[in-house]
């Protein structure tokens, strides 16, 4: 499996190669242009960006090398690898699924069939969760949190990597997702503070936590068939389908959160762009109060944070 380029050594086998004069030579820049042209003809939304990441990822190049090594010769086996990847993208398989890994919050995460791709909007949840953990560590000396429905482990691993005083339990219902999450914790050097457990939501959680964090499935069931092929055909349905109204996971989390939230603990959740009010109503009915909310770069509601409304 090929990984995101930053996982590879910084040096490249292209760095010492010079183009050989004569017919039949393919250069890096020509290969890139071939990919862009194919993606434009297919009508993909971001052909140049897709081509840049796909070609660099398959060949193990940084994006800087893509710009500076354009006249380097591409060997036939390398061209065949890139051509195969182009065909997969033309069938609407996402770039990072093809590469097998994606960067998130400055870290590298391998993907699997049981996991969503970690996406930039979720970095907002990590930013807010990190601030919560840092305050908790200053107050208590340590912090313990649970990541419900962890998938790749991206949220939990990113939080642990940036908060040395924290430990995490990551839960999921898919064994494959937990295996992927453990691998990502190991790759990113936080495996000693990262525990996993299989089960839905709080069924696998024991004890109480300073923070409950989750990016649960929140897409309305009937909407899934209308999604782009990159999502509909390649992301696991269990990680997308939020039920008839998209809110099943939030109800399940809210119903048992009070049993697992430590004193002064908080709940930090990603939500769909139109779900702030309804998710707030669900948690309010279970004795929680909305203390903060944050929008994504598109100015859509994306993160909500709750605390217990009951005084200790």
Automatic annotation (TrEMBL):
Annotated residues that bind substrate are located at: 215-218
Span of domain Methyltransferase small: 127-220
Keyword Transcription regulation in record: no
Could you tell me which InterPro entries the record lists for this protein? DNA_methylase_N6_adenine_CS, HemK-like, N5-glutamine_MTase, PrmC_N, RF_methyltr_PrmC, SAM-dependent_MTases_sf, Small_mtfrase_dom
Q: What top-tier enzyme class does this entry carry?
A: transferase
Q: For this protein, what reaction is catalysed?
A: L-glutaminyl-[peptide chain release factor] + S-adenosyl-L-methionine = N(5)-methyl-L-glutaminyl-[peptide chain release factor] + S-adenosyl-L-homocysteine + H(+)
E.C. code? 2.1.1.297
- Name one molecular function that GO assigns to this entry: peptide chain release factor N(5)-glutamine methyltransferase activity
Keyword list, A-Z:
Methyltransferase, S-adenosyl-L-methionine, Transferase
Q: Where is the Release factor glutamine methyltransferase N-terminal domain?
A: 31-100
Q: One of this protein's GO BP terms? A: methylation
Q: At which positions is S-adenosyl-L-methionine bound?
A: 149-153, 172, 201, 215
The source's domain of life comes to Bacteria
Family, per entry: Belongs to the protein N5-glutamine methyltransferase family. PrmC subfamily.
Q: Which NCBIfam families does the protein's record reference? A: hemK_fam, RF_mod_PrmC
- Protein role: Methylates the class 1 translation termination release factors RF1/PrfA and RF2/PrfB on the glutamine residue of the universally conserved GGQ motif.
State the protein's name: Release factor glutamine methyltransferase
Organism listed in the record: Martelella lutilitoris
Q: What is the lineage of its organism?
A: Bacteria, Pseudomonadati, Pseudomonadota, Alphaproteobacteria, Hyphomicrobiales
């Amino acid at each position: 499996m090929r990984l995101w380029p930053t996982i590879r050594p910084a040096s490249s086998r292209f760095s010492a190669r010079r183009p050989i004069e004569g017919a039949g030579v393919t250069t890096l820049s020509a290969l890139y242009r071939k990919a862009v042209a194919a993606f434009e003809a297919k009508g993909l939304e971001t052909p140049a960006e897709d081509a840049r990441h796909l070609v660099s990822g398959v060949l193990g190049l940084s994006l800087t090398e893509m710009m500076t090594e354009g006249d380097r010769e591409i060997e036939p086996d390398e061209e065949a690898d890139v051509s195969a990847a182009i065909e997969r993208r033309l069938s609407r398989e996402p770039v990072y699924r093809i590469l097998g890994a994606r960067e998130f919050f400055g870290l590298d995460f391998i993907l699997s069939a049981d996991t969503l791709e970690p996406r930039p909007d979720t970095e907002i949840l990590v930013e807010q969760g990190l601030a919560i953990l840092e305050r908790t560590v200053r107050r208590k000396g340590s912090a313990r949190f649970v990541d419900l429905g962890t998938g790749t482990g991206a949220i939990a691993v990113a939080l642990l990597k940036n908060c040395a005083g924290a430990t995490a339990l990551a839960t999921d219902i898919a064994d494959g997702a937990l295996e992927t999450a453990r691998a990502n914790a190991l790759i990113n050097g936080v495996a000693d503070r990262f525990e996993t457990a299989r089960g839905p939501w709080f069924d696998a959680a024991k004890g109480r936590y300073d923070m409950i964090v989750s990016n649960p499935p929140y897409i309305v069931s009937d909407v899934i068939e209308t999604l782009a092929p990159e999502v509909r055909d390649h992301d696991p349905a269990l990680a997308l389908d939020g039920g008839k109204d998209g809110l099943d996971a939030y109800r399940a989390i809210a119903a048992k959160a009070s049993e697992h939230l430590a004193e002064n603990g908080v709940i930090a959740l990603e939500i769909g762009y139109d779900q702030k009010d309804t998710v707030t109503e669900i948690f309010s009915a279970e004795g929680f109060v909305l203390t903060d909310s944050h929008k994504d770069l598109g100015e859509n509601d994306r993160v909500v944070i709750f605390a217990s409304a009951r005084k200790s």
